[in-house]
Amino acid sequence: MERKAVFPGSFDPFTIGHEIIVRRAIELFDHIIISIGINMEKSHLFPLEVRKKWIEELFADEPKISVKTYNMLTVDFCRQQGARFILRGLRTSADFEYERVIGQINRQLGEFKIETVYLLTLPEHTYISSTFVREVIKYKGDISKFVPQNIAQDIMQNWY
Ligand code: ADP
User: Does the annotation mark 43 as catalytic?
Assistant: First the structure.
């Protein structure tokens, strides 16, 4: 059976931290679906289709990766996609506490067996978050060290 994982998030925008988690996880799975949750309660800086397009461009040469959007419980989306794994990144102990609750809830929700796999972030990416990147963007700062090149270029050329 194919080892398929869903990597869920808002990715507003996708950062180098996210990118490296996905690239490391390619070794572990046959296919990874980077899945952008449509969360009506969160207001986003970048439109869904733009966030999706940036990630697709970034992994255009990587057949093991696809990008999708979803508007349901992550476990239900996993079942719909035939994915038995959820991939998440861990930066800090705060991430751990947050992820622990989500992971345990997902386990209770899914009668379909889904394992969440956590990868520790590289030390040099621990401080990178989409929230912090959005703050830099607000003041038109240089985001090229935090965001993949194609995304940084588009934002600094077309959104500033
Ligand atoms: P969410 O809206 O669920 O918080 P994010 O888009 O912020 O989604 O993040 C998605 C996943 O990527 C989460 O598992 C998060 O911990 C992980 N992540 C975020 N930033 C980094 C980083 N700098 N290094 C490694 N993992 C990260």
Answer: no
